[in-house]
Amino acid sequence: MRNLLKIKITTNYKYKYKLLISYFLIVATPLIIMTGLLYKISADNMQKEIENSNVYKLNQFKVNLELRIKEMENLASILNVDSKLSPHSIEDSEYKRIEGIKQIGIYKAQNAFINDYHLYFKSSGKVYSLEGQSSIITYVRNFFGLKKSVESSFIKNINELKVPVFLGQEWFEENSTKSIEYISYLYPISFSNYDPYGVVMLHIRKSKLSEMIKNITGHIKGNLLVFDRFGNVLFSESNSFELSSKDINLVKNLINNQNILATGIYEKFYNKDISLLIDTSKNTGLIFALAIPRTQFLEQLVNIKTLIIEAFLIIFSFGILLAIVFSLNVYKPINAVINHITRKWSELGEYYQEEQSNFLDRMSELDRISHTVEIALEQNRNLKERINKQMPFIKEQLLMKLLKGEIFDEINVNNIMELSEVKLDGCSFGVIVIEKMVKSEERLIRVFKDKLLKIIEEESNLKGTVYPVELIQNDAVAAILNLNIKLDEFEKYIDFIKYLKQVIEEVTNEKIIIGGGRLYNKIDKINRSFIEAMASLEENKVRRKQGILMFSEIENLRHQIFWYSTHNQLRFLQSLRQGDKIVALESLESIFNDIKENKSSALVIKYICYDIVNMIIKFANEIKIDIFDYNIENVMKFSNIDELERETRLLVEQLCHVVQENKALRKEELNNKIINYINLNFDNVNMSLEKVADEFGLSTYYLSRFFKELTNQTFTDYLIDLRMKKAKELLVNTDLQIKEIVNRIGYTDLTYFMKRFKMTEGVTPGQYRELYRAKYNIGSR
Question: CA–CA separation, 670 vs 659, rounded Å?
Fold first, then answer.
């Protein structure tokens, strides 16, 4: 939050435009969806019609081809029973061989579909055709052009052939050295149920099949494939579209994997833009596949598409007109509300970051207001959360400032008290300072302070309000008292303090001494009561008086005659010790007023003045300040009381400033010592908040708040961060086992460490070591 920007409800982006867009979408969305559905339904229907038509044509081709194959099988059967073509007859003499060859020519002339056929007899190894006879080895070399590596295996397969087989495009491409333009149908012939004695090899030109396809399918764009029962390509015919070898292999995989036995339509062929039609011949075992590009379907949808678009544009134009009319009518009352809000909110200001200003300028009226309210609520919620977190610090700082007299604005004080939930509703204010009667080691002082702070905060039977404040520079605790008693009701004041003392001693089991300041009726006088209480405590410790010593009782304890008020003297000295310039100057003024009213001789008056200077010099020596650095000679050269008062006031102001600086330095030094102590001893198994508090004689209450204020972390989080940082360093730079690392950083529970490390780093210690070692190794290369 950096700049204070006034909210201006601009009209750069009218809300009515949003309404117009909304109505436009209301009209357009269902219309677009309906148009899309209509187009899709039409396209699907058209595609189904085309596919069904193509399925029918593919089936017609299959039926015609089955008839032709049946004719070839009949021809083979006729050849089988023709006596002139029997092995015994055709091989008996040259004459019968010639007769047999003529007979082969006669049968060939009767079947126009067959380009040629050959008759092979196993017994003689001869092949007979219209051209004459040849050996089987010569035949396969000349006619099929087989590679030498496959000749013997092919002849062996023919001799062992028992069922008809097709030899087609794929087989010839793999086994022949020639470009074969026909398909061969090998049909075994036999007597009755005996083993075949020969093979009729019928050959069909591809051009015949192409002509048959065109006569049936017409001008279909696509690629027709014919496979044998083993999935080998026999024949391929394309028209303006041809499948790649990779796509053909996909078709073969589809056939082999799904065991196609019937007609099927595959609209999504491996996510390709192809429609695949498949039909299978039960009689021959042949499989027919017709691949058609889907663009062919879209080409036939042009007329339907044009009609749908025209209808869409007409309805859409009418819808836009309705959207404009409705949006204007609906915007009228909304515009009235927005104008009213604009007038009411025109002076509203809110904090925004600079980068948000352009974003806000682009908002519509309603969005701007909604965003402003959301920001205000979010900031209010965040502010409450921050205040709640800082409440203990705010409360402590408020109480400390009241003791130091650093708050003078009553309205400001009341606001801070309300914020920190400090209630000082009583009519009188006083301060007492509590300390153990017997000095003890730092740890016991810390325990005593903890108990004392807890007792005072939790005691509910007190007839007044008490707020404790730990005094860091002393082994004492101050308590601000807010009571509903009059200033002259001293006995009630003492009774309240006595009851509080009794409660503290019963719970702590320690004897305490208390110094009490006087009651005041204004909150800005609390620091005077505090200085008086500190003076009373010092006097109480000097006199070793058990119990309570009030500031108002001190003068009665001194039996010699003073030239000025004992109260003013003690208050002056204690305010110097606290560095409270205001109270010190007030007390000094009261002392000089007493001197001015004194009727003693001039020599006595001068002696009294020297006593004041001597008192200041003693104080400076007590706190180890070189008084001669502050023009003490000017003070000693006074010629009258007013001159002495003026020079003394300047000296007191300088001394108070030095005391405040020393306090700040001591506090900073203490802070550094605490942090350094933890940084050096975090690997101690016994390290805890209590141990640190014992080391420095602080209460755990103060130390906990100090840590949060100084590091913005709790003591526990700070300690864990130190230990985890050291653990990561040892993981990366050493080969120590994790258990040993755990011991070195101050943990005893390996399981707890593993969980805490995983929670902090997102990986286990072992994974962290591998990850960062690999990273460093790569970096070093």
Answer: 16
Cβ–Cβ under 8 Å, residues 235 and 168: yes
CATH number of the domain enclosing 444: 3.30.70.270
Q: Give the whole-angstrom CA distance, residue 419 versus residue 775.
A: 51
Task: Report the CATH number that the domain containing residue 730 is assigned in CATH.
Answer: 1.10.10.60
Which helix (H) or strand (E) is 475 found in, with range?
Answer: none
DSSP secondary structure letter of residue 84: G
Same domain, 94 and 169: yes
Q: What is d(CA 608, CA 588) in angstroms, rounded to the nearest whole number?
A: 13
- Classify 638 as helix, strand or coil: coil
The tokens 């509910």 sit on which residue? 460
CATH no. for residue 114? 3.30.450.20
33-46 in b/e form (b: 16+ CB < 10 A) is: eebeeebeeebeee
Which of residues 182, 207, 232 is at a domain's end? Answer: 207
The CATH number assigned to the domain holding 290 equals 3.30.450.30
Rounded Cα distance, 456 and 431, in Å: 13
Range of the domain at 171: 82-207
CA 751/CA 332 separation, integer angstroms: 68
Distance CA 51, CA 277 (A): 8
pTM given for the model: 0.44
In this prediction, what percent of the chain has a pLDDT beyond 90? 5
Q: What is the pLDDT of residues 124-164, one digit of tens each?
A: 889 998 888 899 999 888 888 888 889 899 999 999 999 99
Residue 521 DSSP label: S
DSSP character at residue 706 = H
Angle at 159 between CA 153 and CA 161, to 5 degrees: 95
Neighbouring C-alpha atoms within 13 Å toward the C-beta of 231: 13
Distance of CA 392 to the CA centre of its chain: 32
**pLDDT tens for each residue of 685-736:** 888 888 887 777 777 777 777 777 777 778 888 888 888 888 888 888 888 8
Q: Domain total for the chain?
A: 6
Shared domain for 672 and 625, answered yes or no, is yes
Contacts of 554 (CB under 8 A, 6+ apart): 535, 536, 539, 566, 567, 570
User: Is residue 431 in a domain?
Assistant: yes
**Residue among 303, 313, 309, 250 at smallest CA distance from 276:** 250
253 shares its domain with 186: no
Three-class secondary structure assignment of 715-781: HHHHHHHHHHHHHHHHHHHCCCCHHHHHHHCCCCCHHHHHHHHHHHHCCCHHHHHHHHHHHHHHHHC
* β-sheet bridge partners, residue 480: 431, 467
Same domain for 583 and 639?
yes
Contact by Cβ (8 Å): 262, 43 = no
* 306, part of any domain: no
How many residues comprise the chain?
781
- The answer to whether residue 344 scores a pLDDT higher than 60 is no
753 shares its domain with 741: yes
For residues 434 and 543, membership in a common domain is answered with yes
Question: Which of 727, 759, 724 lies closest to 741 in space, CA to CA?
Answer: 727
Mark whether 250 and 371 lie in a shared domain: no
Give domain status of residue 451, yes or no: yes
pLDDT, tens only, 389-425: 667 777 777 777 887 777 666 667 777 777 667 787 7
CA atoms within 13 A on the CB side of 603: 0
> Pick from 178, 207, 236: which residue ends a domain?
207
If you average pLDDT over residues 652-679, what whole number do you get?
82
User: Measuring CA to CA, how many Å separate 715 from each of 59, 582, 591, 685?
Assistant: 86, 37, 48, 15
Give Rg (Cα) of the chain.
56
399 in any annotated domain: no
Say whether both 431 and 553 belong to one domain.
yes
DSSP alpha helix (H) spans, 563-688: 566-578, 581-597, 602-622, 632-636, 641-681
